[in-house]
Design brief:
alpha/beta; eight-stranded mixed sheet; eight-stranded parallel β-barrel; 36 helices; 32 strands; elongated; binds adenosine-5'-diphosphate; binds magnesium ion
Length: about 900
């Protein structure tokens, strides 16, 4: 749920918000009392705020302090330096921590060891780095050994620290350390880390020192305070590392919010076999099932569980080995779930049978699980329906509509292997072995499956574009699993039978070799992998809507619809769909669209057998011929409209008159020239050749330098009023027919691309004249509206004049964005990426509405329009109509409805409800 156009944006208490910030930058937690609490996520990061909350709830949390995100902002403002005043505040808190823990930094008898952990407002799993066991040096390691009588443990901790510090702070490649570690392991014939004894680990430490000296040109820092300062700054620095930036871009997390740094006393899961470390969820994050869920490792520390170094055990096993700690963990985590009223994703460590909580946060989950959990919580009376709709990321609902495999075909193919079902969904595609290739191949239009030994956070872009992700190692909480679930990306991890050769671009599994480009398919819900291409089929919800499955037989369908029904109670805006055909309109209605916001008539021109007639209309160089072609189109359009009206059961249907430049309906100039050359080579003077030559002449006549700014939209209707006449006639004849059948029908005729009131006036005269005529002919009256699209900036700026002629406005935000930015929608791909890399733009303005720049244009259009026509109905019909954060803005400016593609309707219903609950119109 990190895609936080945040729904749960609880406003930070005034005293804590940045604008009125005090000079406090460091917040202590320990001994049952904390300076912060859970509401302070913006300042303390999610991790820091929840550590404070757990401390206040008297849970066993190692003491520590949080350096706030405000310090991070200062760090960047001061050219990557922390001012001395914050340094001093940190030292004060360090002394407090020493007192609370009864230990001392650098002490030769009882040394304080800490972890240094990042944590921003939105969790970014694995994107930034954590350092454990800080405070160890050649002397304190001996003190640790003496205190614990465990030299193996002391040196294991030291080598881990050097490795993390070396790579994160000194920026030495991890491989350099791993190489030395493996050498020692091999030398001792060890396969597992745990098999190395103290002696061996001392050798590792010695070798690491050499690595540091050679690579960093300095000795490993021995002074704990220096270690701490360096580590803190490295965490701040890691906020801007490329993978963190990439992550933020995908999840729309702004760069400026920064990260906090948590410094926390260490507890140890690696002291022996009465110790452990683990992670878990209070409910199954993949399926939503109410079950305790997670993994742990005995005698291990920190990242071991998620890094896939050893295969962890399922958390239920913990009950057998450490029953007391297990029971306490279950108690605490259920309490946390009730307190946060949400599924908790927690991290813990057990040191010599004593449990410590190290983190809790609201768990990320699949869209499927989100719906199950929210409806279960309501049934359990843990939350209200209103809270339930605020809990679900609207975007994630679209996962429930994603296709699955045809079970018959799927079952007919042998299972090649099984892995852990990390994230549900059916995936089929061609195998690639690197994130870069995944991006290249998918840019070329190929469906890809990203296969990796294990995924690392750098793979995130490749995962994003792939149909699915398949890894050979890792557990249910490994990086690939966590990120996959969050993206709703079908994922299987830990398919250990795969022998992946990334360099050779192949993998083998049970005797089969699969090369780059070969097809594989897998089911992320069952974990089955198959070596074939398999067609997918509609999701369960779609099957119900298509009447292939009874609603009573689909639990998920009923829950899904329940969520949407609850949403409808809270939303103010209507939700319509963009649909051009009766079947699309029917689906949209089934998804809950009440009305069509955009029916693009020209899409109908591409229908079976119509293009030649359309071409004849375009080729006509006189009105008579054009009218003849239009007369042929009339019955076809009328039938289309009849079907769409009927499917909408009387709800308003907005039909746009012809919009695109005419040449879009003609063959390409180059293709014609080739055909003509071929015909000329064969014979002379044939009819076909004549037609093609005429076509070519017309194509050349119609050529435009900037077709998107050329002869299109209302300009076509003005120059060829007979087109508007025909379309109006088709709309009204269809409407009259329905009216005569006793059915309700509400047509809205929409003139596109209007920038001047007189354009609309011109077309309205035509529309009204024809409409009157048709109604007289038919002997019935139908109520219809005439309105316009506002998509040319001039239209918005003169909306007060236009509104005197228009009965409704519909913002075409695609064109409005195009014309306000001056970015061609069709060419923006060439430079958008660079714009994003250079931080000129955070987001693609064609995907997420640009509130700052296009927003004021839209707002002006709304305000001016309502000034002269208070009853003006206003909606939006661009792609943005289905985008949750854009919907938020449309709620603010007080639009009457949003309209989006049929599949986005459920997303829009939920997003509109969240927006209505979060903002007041006019905010
Ligand atoms: P991430 O945000 O990547 O999960 P964390 O800061 O949570 O990183 O640290 C990762 C792991 O390191 C934790 O789950 C925990 O196992 C271990 N860890 C962090 N701090 C401590 C600590 N004070 N004592 C023991 N283990 C710790
Ligand atoms: Mg963590
Ligand atoms: Mg347009």
């Amino acid at each position: 749920m990190a895609k936080k156009k945040s729904v749960k944006k609880r406003p930070a208490p005034k005293a804590l918000s940045r604008s009125t910030k005090s000079s406090k930058y460091v917040y202590f937690f320990g001994n049952g009392k904390a300076d912060g609490d859970r509401t302070m996520r913006e300042l303390l990061g999610g991790k820091g705020a929840n550590l404070a909350e757990m401390t206040n709830a008297a849970l066993p949390v190692p003491a520590g302090f949080t350096i706030s995100t405000a310090a991070c902002t200062i760090y960047y403002k001061e050219k990557r330096r922390i001012p001395p005043s914050i340094d001093a505040e940190m030292l004060t808190n360090l002394r407090k921590l020493e007192k609370a823990s009864g230990t001392q930094f650098g002490s030769n008898t009882n040394p304080l060891l800490v972890s240094v952990r990042s944590g921003s407002k939105f969790s970014m799993p694995g994107m930034m780095d954590t350092i454990l066991n800080l405070g160890l040096n050649d002397e304190t390691v001996e003190a640790l050994k003496r205190r614990t009588s465990n030299g193996r443990f002391a040196y294991d901790s030291y080598r881990r620290f050097m490795q993390m510090f070396g790579s994160v702070v000194l920026e030495i490649p991890k491989d350099a350390f791993e190489h030395e570690f493996d050498t020692v392991k091999r030398g001792r014939g060890a396969t597992l880390d745990t098999e190395l004894d103290e002696e061996a680990l001392r050798e590792v430490v010695a070798r690491y020192k050499t690595v540091v000296r050679e690579r960093a040109k300095r000795d490993f820092p021995q002074e704990p305070r220096e270690q701490l300062t360096m580590a803190r700054d490295a965490v701040f620095r890691s906020w801007m590392n490329p993978r963190a930036q990439e992550y933020r871009r995908i999840y729309d997390i702004p760069d400026h919010i920064g990260t906090a740094v948590n410094v926390q006393m260490m507890v140890f899961g690696n002291t022996g076999d009465r110790s452990a470390t683990g992670v878990g969820f209070t409910r199954n994050p993949a399926t939503g099932a109410k079950e305790f869920y997670g993994e742990f490792l005995i005698n291990a520390q920190g990242e071991d569980v998620v890094a896939g170094i050893r295969t962890p055990q399922p958390i239920t096993e913990l009950e057998k080995v450490l029953p007391k700690a297990y029971k306490q963990l279950r108690d605490i985590t259920s309490r946390l779930e009730r307190n946060y009223k949400d599924v908790q994703d927690f991290e813990f460590t057990i040191q010599d049978e004593r449990l410590f909580m190290l983190q809790t946060r609201n768990g990320k989950r699949t869209g499927y699980a989100a719906v199950i959990i929210a409806t279960d919580f309501v049934a359990e009376r843990l939350i209200t329906p209103k809270e339930a709709i605020l809990q679900i990321d609207p975007e994630s609902l679209s996962q429930l509509l994603a296709p699955g495999f045809d079970q018959k075909e799927w079952k007919s193919i042998p299972v090649a292997t099984r892995g852990l079902p990390a994230s549900p969904g059916a995936a089929s595609g061609q195998v690639v072995f690197s994130a870069e290739e995944a991006v290249q191949w998918s840019d070329a239009g190929k469906p890809v499956i990203l296969v990796r030994r294990e995924t690392v956070p750098d793979d995130i872009r490749g995962m994003f574009v792939a149909q699915g992700v398949l890894t050979a190692t890792g557990g249910m909480t490994s990086h690939a699993a966590v990120v996959g679930r969050q993206m709703g990306k079908p994922s299987i991890v830990g398919a250990s039978a795969l022998d992946v050769d990334e360099d050779g671009r192949r993998f083998t599994v049970n005797g089969h070799t699969i090369k780059e480009g070969d097809f594989v398919s897998f089911d992320g819900l069952t974990g089955e992998v198959k070596l074939a291409k398999v067609a997918s089929k509609p999701s369960e919800i779609l099957q119900v809507l298509n009447r292939e499955l009874e609603p009573a037989k689909s639990d998920i369908y009923r829950r899904f619809m329940q969520i949407l029904k609850w949403s409808d109670k809270h939303r103010r805006m209507d939700v319509r769909a963009n649909a051009d055909q009766p079947d699309q309109a029917e689906l949209a209605y089934a998804f809950g669209a009440r009305g069509i916001g955009l029916c693009r008539t020209e899409h109908m021109f591409f229908g079976e057998g119509r293009i030649p007639i359309v071409q004849r209309m375009i080729l006509a160089d006189n009105e008579k011929d054009r009218r003849a072609a239009l007369a042929e189109l009339l019955p076809m359009q009328r039938d289309d409209f009849y079907g769409v009206f009927k499917a909408m059961k009387g709800e308003p249907v907005t039909i746009r008159t012809i919009d695109p430049p005419l040449h879009e309906f003609l063959p390409k100039r180059e293709e014609l020239m080739v055909e003509i050359a071929r015909l000329e080579a064969r014979a002379h003077g044939t009819d076909e050749l004549e037609t093609k030559l005429a076509l070519l002449r017309r194509v050349e006549q119609l050529h435009e330098f900037n077709p998107m700014l050329g002869h299109r939209g209302v300009r076509l209707g003005i120059t060829y009023p007979e087109i508007t006449e025909m379309q109006t006639r088709a709309i009204l004849e269809a409407a009259c027919r329905l009216a005569k059948e006793g059915l309700k029908v509400t047509p809205e005729i929409m003139i596109p691309l209007v920038g001047h009131v007189k354009e609309l006036r011109d077309q309205k005269v035509v529309v009204n004249r024809v409409a009157e005529q048709v109604m007289k002919e038919q002997g019935v009256t139908v109520k219809y509206l005439v309105g316009t699209m506002i998509e040319v900036p001039r239209g918005a700026m003169t909306a007060d004049e236009i509104a005197t002629e228009a009965q409704f406005f519909s913002f075409g935000t695609n064109d409005l964005t195009q014309m306000t930015f001056g970015f061609s929608r069709d060419d923006v791909g060439k430079f958008l990426r660079v714009y994003q890399d250079k931080k000129i733009l955070d987001r693609d303005p064609f995907a997420t509405f640009d509130v700052d720049g296009v927003g004021p244009v839209l707002r002006t259009g709304v305000e001016l329009g309502r000034r002269t026509n208070p009853d003006l109905k206003i909606g939006v019909c661009g792609e943005h109509g289905g985008d949750p954060s854009s919907i938020h803005f449309f709620e603010k400016v007080g639009l009457n409805y949003v309209s989006c593609s049929p599949y986005r309707v459920p997303v829009a219903r939920l997003a509109a409800a969240q927006a209505a609950l979060a903002v007041k119109v006019g905010d």
